[in-house]
Amino acid sequence: MGILRRRQLPAPAPDDSSSMSIGTTLIGRLTVRVPVTIVGQVLGIRIRPSDELPSLVVRLGDDSGSVTIVWTGRRSIGGVTLGRRLRVEGTPVRSAEGVCIYNPMYQLL
Amino acid sequence: MKIVIAGAGSVGRYMAEQLRASGHAIRIIDNDTDAVARARGLDPGIEVINGDGCEVDTLARAGCRDADVVAAVTGDDEDNLVISLLAKQEFGVPRVVGRVNNPKNEWMFTDMWGVDVSVSTPHLLTGLVEEAVSVGAFVRLLSLEHGRARIAEVTLAASSPAIGKSLTSLNFPRESTVVAVLRDGHVIVPRGDTVVLAGDEVMMLSLAEAESDVRRILIGPEAGV
Predict the structure, then answer these.
(1) Which fold would CATH assign to domain A21-108?
(2) Which of B56, B91, B114 sits opposite A33 (nearest CB)?
(3) Do A72 and B112 touch (CB under 8 A)?
(4) Residue B68 and which of A11, B23, B47, B179 are 20 to 30 A apart at CA?
(5) Of the candidates A3, A33, A73, which has its C-beta nearest B92's C-beta?
């Protein structure tokens, strides 16, 4: 359960949020099925109808491109708002709606 | 194709042997010593991984990183959901197949849990039994794309308004098509001039919105809904 366990730890303290950090990948250069860490800005948040199963769908972008982030089982995450910068760690997956990262570890910047 | 099977019970072992015989690269996971021992007695080309499929490390060891398909076929629906979610979320496996043991859980086997295709044995059995006993009823056999399209079958009763007509003249909606006509144990590949008779089993592929029209054409207005 290595990856899952790590997720349950509190997020590390915020660090330099001014620019691209070391060890992150440009969103335009994501490779499907290769785990990555990306930093980007919340460009859009999609609201799902209340009769559907809850999920939070966020469009995260940087200068090179954008990607869809999906958190299942919840409708909102405190601090994940339009314009917010996030660091996200997960695996890009090809889905019917394009490339998505499901339930990634995240850090508010 | 590279296929990872989670669960080496009778279902998993059977699948492993069949798929191996078709030339696929198979890895099968189980954490039950007995099941692992039995799986090791199968075709030596089948790789057996002793571990918990609900753990990311085990799935990585089984090669989920480059697997084409993961089939979660344990006898436990919770395990199957966890395996499906991890296969999709952590490894981006293109096709995740989940086995539903208890039909009450079927609603959860969707993309929310990483499942691309769910297979429910009780549901299939119900459909097949219904199909065997019902004439003039609309029996759904298989759902595709999360229920947006279905394969269904109607055995035509003598009172069906379709009897004696060609498929073209029945004017099926655009969102549906006849995929096969079964008559006296023969499969007839349908063409526009195929004429349907009482007792024919008509297999239809139709989108959800076309189903009521299809029922009306094959069964008639009263029995329609």
Answers:
(1) OB fold (Dihydrolipoamide Acetyltransferase, E2P) (2.40.50)
(2) B91
(3) yes
(4) B179
(5) A33
3-state secondary structure chain A: CHHHHHHHCCCCCCCCCCCCCCCCCCHHHCCCCCCEEEEEEEEEEECCCCCCCCEEEEEEEECCEEEEEEEECCCCCCCCCCCCEEEEEECEEEECCEEEEECCEEEEC
Using the beta-carbon criterion (under 8 Å), do B114 and A94 form an inter-chain contact? no
Shortest Cα distance, chain B CAs vs residue A65, angstroms: 20
Interface TM-score (ipTM) > 0.95: no
Nearest-angstrom CA–CA distance, A49 and B89: 23
| 109 residues of chain A, pLDDT tens digit each | 444 444 444 444 444 444 455 678 999 999 999 999 999 999 999 877 777 778 899 999 999 999 999 998 888 999 999 999 999 999 999 988 789 999 999 999 9
**Domain at B2-119: CATH code:** 3.40.50.720
